[in-house]
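Thread: Aldehyde dehydrogenase domain-containing protein, structure

OP (GT): Posting the sequence first so everyone is looking at the same thing. Length is 196 residues per the record. Can we get the structure tokens written out before standup tomorrow? I want them in the notebook alongside the other entries.
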Amino acid sequence: MLPDVDVDEVALKLFMGAFFNSGQVCVACKRLYIHESIYERPRDKLHQLAQTLPIGDCMQPGVLFGPIQNLPQYRRVLQLRDEARDAGLVLLEGAAVPERGYFMPLTLVDNPPEDSRVAVEEAFGPILPLLRFSDVDEVIASAYGLAGAVWINQNLESSPMVPLGGHKQSGLGVENGVAGLMEFTQPKSIFIPKSA
């Protein structure tokens, strides 16, 4: 986030980009870089969202965030969070979660060291490190994940036909567009005899 960002305009969108499906999306925001001159305002706005948006049974009206998908992943995400806390990092946790199930509060990590495990490893869960920066070139030079996004303050429209996805070690295929539709098909040969 650069100094000219409209925090009120983008906060919920960034929040959902990080925590949609409780952060269990391969292209979810895994690290959020915020310019030091505005750092506190977006941090506080995101924390407010984490404290007010409910976690629980997503079949219930108004509940947007559910559990972590399985026990091994739940334990892994809790370990990342606990290691961050034990290292003295500041965790900004969200709303209370149900006692039963693999639920964890939506958690912001307040400016962890960029080489800390919570900032380097993909949590694939409801943890978002907020990283303070002063030089955008340093951010660009930092390590990249599976996906990256640059948001600008202009109204541009992209085609719904733009494919999203990856192959090899970075994904299982493509969504959207013709390429996404082809993921649901298998080629078949049909032979029709010529009429006599």
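GT: Both are above now. Quick notes for whoever picks this up: Residues 71-86 form the longest helix (16 residues). The first strand starts at residue 32 and ends at 35.
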